[in-house]
Give the backbone structure.
Amino acid sequence: LAKTTQPISMDSYEGQEVNITCSHNNIATNDYITWYQQFPSQGPRFIIQGYKTKVTNEVASLFIPADRKSSTLSLPRVSLSDTAVYYCLVGENNDMRFGAGTRLTVKP
Amino acid sequence: DSGVTQTPKHLITATGQRVTLRCSPRSGDLSVYWYQQSLDQGLQFLIQYYNGEERAKGNILERFSAQQFPDLHSELNLSSLELGDSALYFCASSAWRGRNTEAFFGQGTRLTVV
């Protein structure tokens, strides 16, 4: 079970790009990296998943260096509605144990 | 709408009582997960079922138990309730494809123990 380390909190302003980095030094060969977003009193929502290099969807990009010991979730031009907790999960076969996450606050 | 249904949405009960939380996964999803989230706390993984069998166990108390039925819905039973059991309980489901796949969460059951 790969342990993940994320910043506890981050602040940003509307319109800025936000990068949240997750460290996972003991990631295993078969592990995927998955990010979820959670708003207060709601269940988490899948954002993006990747194995290596770069993955992009309509919401975010995920950058994974060659050694895969870290990953960076990039949120382009954040808005107030992006204020949430972001979780990085690393594992295989649907290992769904969440860490503490990063609380992102977007300010006007 | 994630397609995962949890009932009831809210539940208020007294200490010492027993409650059952129900989760209906998305159509076709074989894996069900249960989580507990206390106020301003992280998601505590409780237990996972896959196609009726227990797959993984987290920090689930002995007073808590769960099962997944043949129709794939799942129930989480909480007994001898304590004030500290007050929390949001989430259920999630995912398909099983031999690798990490997207999980879908329900809206949760808010349990208040008084």
